[in-house]
Design brief:
341 residues; alpha+beta; L-amino peptidase D-ALA esterase/amidase; 10-stranded mixed beta sheet; 3-stranded antiparallel beta sheet; 19% helix
Length: 341
């Protein structure tokens, strides 16, 4: 087994490029995963407050087999607008599903057009700074322009720029989340994951079970341990619906069918359950996409790929909070990072 270094992550999967747009006026942004040659895709929506686009298209019951990009964005539902910029970037380069125009006569007969397929999902970060500033179509286009197959930035970048974790006991006791990524190669198959970590719950190191980021004590200088506190009788107050969400993308260079990609996405959700406690709440809109570029020939072991995807997604969540840096002041909430405690 070979675990890729922290900075490589999802770009270790052949055929994918990752790009970030990070807003400078307040902490927010978007992240695009480009698959210019197309990739078979699936999705699993597990949280109760999702914000998505084109996820129904990924059902094995529906016609389109491949996608050309996945967009993850801050800005709540407003951030879905960034997918339009990704569409424009792909369209300008002639990338998309080819549709042949019907007709029997005239110049238009037999001509084809291409429609890029760009599923997207958003997380809620509007409370961090001016909520009128959110990723738009220009932001999505800029993320595409920045996309690379080289080692990628992590932490306070892209869709993780305004992310926070540990909000179960109130925003004032939360910590900074971020964007993380990891990849592994086993038996010649590469599986990678990327996560924008904006969870309501705490972040747990799956290897030790220790809470590494999350709700803080009332003094603010130490971790509370949300579930330990709840079991001891300290109950949280009500939380606004839709104020959290962790978004994930897992990918492999193996060949998968659409149904198999959906199964991998479903299995990968276990990675969130291992690294976030509690996960998949009424306030989280957790969504995991799965991509298969098919650049590695031969049959695929779906069970193995799904198991590795869950492991890498858990690792990506952990790396996202470890790479994050705290924010505060200038109208921003005080959100310390792991390195600050």
């Amino acid at each position: 087994m070979s675990l890729e270094p922290t900075t490589r992550g999802l770009t270790a999967v052949e055929g994918l490029r990752v790009g970030h747009f990070t807003e400078t006026r307040r902490p927010t942004g978007c992240t695009v995963i480009l698959a210019p040659a197309g990739a078979v895709a699936g999705v699993d929506v597990r949280g109760a407050s999702p914000g998505t686009r084109e996820t129904e298209l990924l059902s094995p019951l529906n016609a389109v087999e491949t996608v050309h990009a996945i967009l993850l964005s801050g800005g709540s539902a407003f951030g879905l607008d960034a997918a339009s910029g990704v569409m424009r970037w792909l369209d300008e380069r002639g990338i998309g599903v080819e549709l042949r125009r019907a007709g029997t006569a005239g110049a238009a007969a037999g001509q084809s057009i291409r429609v890029p397929i760009v599923p997207a999902a958003i997380l809620f970060d509007l409370w961090v700074g001016d909520p009128a500033i959110r990723p738009d179509a220009a932001a999505g286009y800029a993320a595409c322009e920045a996309a690379t197959s080289e080692p990628m930035a992590q932490g306070n970048v892209g869709a993780g720029a305004g992310a926070s974790v540990g909000k179960l006991f109130g925003i004032e006791r939360a910590m900074k989340g971020g964007l993380g990524s990891a990849a592994v190669t086993v038996g010649g198959v590469t599986v990678g994951a990327l996560a924008a970590v904006n969870a309501l719950g705490d972040i747990v190191d799956p290897a030790t079970g220790a809470v590494v980021a999350g709700a803080r004590t009332t003094a603010g200088d130490a971790l509370l341990g949300s579930m330990r506190a709840i079991l001891a009788g300290e109950l949280p107050g009500p939380t606004p619906v839709g104020s959290a969400t962790t978004l994930g993308v897992v990918a492999t260079d193996a060949r998968l069918t659409k149904a198999e990609a959906n199964k991998v996405a479903q299995m990968a959700q276990d990675g969130l359950a291992r690294s976030i406690n509690p996960a998949h709440t009424m306030t989280d809109g957790d969504v995991v996409f799965a991509l298969a570029t098919g650049s590695r020939p031969g049959p695929a072991n779906v069970t193995l790929i799904g198991a590795l995807a869950a492991e890498m997604l858990a690792e990506a969540v952990l790396r996202g909070v470890l790479a994050a840096r705290g924010i505060g002041g200038d109208g921003l909430p005080n959100l310390p990072a792991v390195c600050d405690l």
